[in-house]
Amino acid sequence: MDVINGVREAFIDEGMDEQVLLELKQVVNDFNFCFIFLYSALEIFLGSVLILSNLWKNKLVKQKVKVLHGTQVQAGIPESHIWSAHC
Question: What is the tally of structural domains in the chain?
Answer without folding.
Answer: 1
